[in-house]
Design a protein that fits this description.
It is built from 2 helices and no strands. The protein has about 100 residues and is mostly helical.
């Protein structure tokens, strides 16, 4: 099964969160590394947002496909009125 992007990023996110906690507590002092950790977390939030939107779009698409299939079933059940071959149009002759 294909892994989601958020699952692939999770180890990096965990490391970034740990580093930022240590940075805020004064245990780490590398500003550049803290900026990168913040960027990782920001990107992770964007990935989660996009995955949520994908799920919503997929759900809407499935509803649409189901609705179209129902319409096809309903229209297939209705007998269409056809003109019989025995009926001919009679033109009136008016003088």
């Amino acid at each position: 099964m294909k892994k989601k992007d958020s699952e692939l990023f999770k180890p990096l996110v965990d490391t970034s969160e740990k580093y930022l906690r240590d940075y805020c507590d004064g245990k780490q002092e590398d500003d550049n590394r803290a900026k990168i950790a913040l960027r990782v977390l920001s990107l992770y939030r964007q990935i989660l947002k996009i995955e949520k939107e994908r799920e919503q779009i997929k759900s809407e698409w499935q509803k649409l496909v189901t609705g179209v299939a129902e319409l096809k079933k309903v229209s297939a059940r209705r007998p269409k009125k056809k003109q019989g071959k025995g009926f001919k149009k009679i033109k009136s002759k008016c003088s």
